[in-house]
Design a protein that fits this description.
With 365 residues, the protein is of the alpha/beta class. The protein has 9 helices and 18 strands. The relative contact order is 0.15.
C-alpha cells in the first residue's frame, strides 16, 4: 500500500508534524480523491492545543475539496475526474489535512459550475452542522425537496442565533429564510449586520454591548406584546463566559437551547492550554424548564435520509440555486503543507479573522 503526507497532532500544544500515512484503496461505495483545498475550523485548534477527544498522533481537518482519482466497485454517482467537496471525520482516511482522502460517495457533493474549490470548501462541515442543529436539536421541519406550499411551523416563537456571522450562523440564517421561518434575531459585530439582514435576520444586535441580552428581550417584547420570550436559541460560539452565560440569563421556561460543543472555558492563546467541557450545564445557572442540548454534528448519520441526501444532494442543490452562499475566504499562504497548516492554526489562535473561513491548499499544485 502506498503512503502520502498528512498533518498530525503529536501532543497538546506541540507543533504539528507531517507524517506519512497509508493510502487506503476504496472499497464498496468509497472513492479516493486527491485533496486540493481545506478550511481550518475551531475544532482543529481544540484538538491541536487542547487535545480534545484526541488520541495522538491524529490527522486533523474535516472539510475537503479535490478530484476523484479512484472509485470503489459499488459507486453509482461519482466517477474519476469529478471535482467534489465534503465533510468527513469518522476515521483517519476521511480526515481533510492530508493529500488523499478516502470516503463514502454519499459524504461528497459534485462541485456546481460557477463556484471555485476555495468557495466550496467553506460549506460542508458548517452547512451540515446548521441543518442537523435545526432538525435534531431545535426540532424544525426542513422537508426535502421543499413542498411548494410549505408553511414553517415555529408556533409564532422567536429564534435567536447567537453568533450569526460565524460560519454555522450564516448557514442557519439562510436555511431558515429559505424555509420561511421568520422572527429571527441574531448577534454579531456591527460590520456583519447588513449581510445578516440579507440572510434573513429581522434584527441584529452587537454582542459586545454589556446589556445585549436586555436589548434583545426589549425588542422582542416590542414586536409581540408579550414577556419577550425567545422560544429557540442556537449558540454558535459555545463560550461559557461570552455566550452560554448571557444566553442562560434570557432563556426562560419552555425555551429550547442548542449549544455548539465543546463549551470553551478558557480560550487557546500563545502559551496557554485551553480548557473545555462537553457539559452545557457546567458553571451556568439555567432557569427551570429550559431545554438545553449540546450539538454533536458527528451523529447526523443516524438519520438515514440525511446520511444519503444532505451532502450529496441538498447541499450542492441549494448552493447552485443561490439559496445559500459560501462563506468569505481568507487564503492562508505558506511554502509547505506544514507551514500552511501552522499558519492557519495561528490565525485561529489569535482570532485574526471574523465572518470568514481560513482556506488553504493541501496537495501541492
Amino acid at each position: 500500500m502506498s503512503t502520502h503526507a498528512a498533518i498530525v497532532t503529536v501532543g497538546p500544544g506541540l507543533p504539528l508534524e507531517v507524517h506519512q500515512v497509508e493510502t487506503p484503496k476504496p472499497v464498496g461505495n468509497q472513492v479516493r480523491l486527491r485533496n486540493e483545498w481545506t478550511a481550518s475550523t475551531p475544532l482543529d485548534l481544540h484538538q491541536a492545543d487542547g487535545g480534545l477527544l484526541v488520541t495522538h498522533p491524529q490527522v486533523l481537518g474535516d472539510g475537503h475539496v479535490g478530484q476523484v482519482v479512484e472509485v470503489g466497485p459499488e459507486t453509482s454517482r461519482l466517477k474519476i475526474g469529478d471535482t467534489v467537496f465534503g465533510f468527513g471525520w469518522r476515521n483517519q482516511a476521511e480526515k481533510a489535512h492530508q493529500e488523499f482522502v478516502v470516503t463514502n460517495e454519499n459524504l461528497l457533493a459534485k462541485l456546481p459550475s460557477g463556484f471555485t474549490p476555495q468557495e466550496a470548501v467553506t460549506l460542508p462541515n458548517n452547512f451540515v452542522t446548521a441543518w442537523h442543529t435545526l432538525t435534531k436539536e431545535i426540532g424544525f421541519e426542513l422537508p426535502w425537496p421543499k413542498p411548494p406550499n410549505f408553511e414553517a411551523k415555529a408556533n409564532g416563537g422567536w429564534v435567536l442565533i447567537w453568533g450569526g456571522s460565524s460560519s454555522v450562523g450564516q448557514f442557519l440564517l439562510q436555511i431558515l429564510k429559505y424555509y420561511g421561518y421568520q422572527n429571527v434575531v441574531t448577534t454579531a459585530s456591527k460590520v456583519h449586520h447588513e449581510r445578516l439582514g440579507r440572510y434573513g435576520a429581522t434584527q441584529c444586535f452587537d454582542y459586545r454591548n454589556d446589556n445585549v441580552g436586555d436589548e434583545i428581550v426589549r425588542f422582542i417584547h416590542s414586536q409581540t406584546n408579550n414577556s419577550g420570550q425567545i422560544s429557540f436559541i442556537v449558540d454558535c460560539i459555545g463560550s461559557q463566559k461570552a455566550s452560554v452565560t448571557p444566553i442562560s440569563r434570557i432563556a426562560k421556561a419552555g425555551s429550547k437551547v442548542a449549544i455548539m460543543l465543546p463549551v470553551i472555558i478558557k480560550d487557546a492563546a500563545a502559551g496557554v492550554r485551553p480548557e473545555y467541557t462537553m457539559e452545557v450545564d457546567e458553571g451556568v445557572p439555567w432557569a427551570d424548564g429550559v431545554q438545553r442540548s449540546g450539538v454533536r454534528t458527528h451523529f447526523y448519520l443516524e438519520n438515514q435520509f440525511l446520511a444519503d441526501k444532505l451532502q450529496s444532494e441538498i447541499m450542492p442543490t441549494l448552493l447552485e440555486q443561490g439559496v445559500i452562499e459560501p462563506n468569505d475566504q481568507v487564503i492562508v499562504e505558506g511554502k509547505t503543507l506544514l507551514e500552511r497548516a501552522e499558519n492557519a492554526l495561528s490565525k485561529l489562535r489569535n482570532k485574526e479573522v471574523s465572518g470568514a473561513r481560513l482556506v488553504w491548499r493541501v496537495a501541492e499544485a
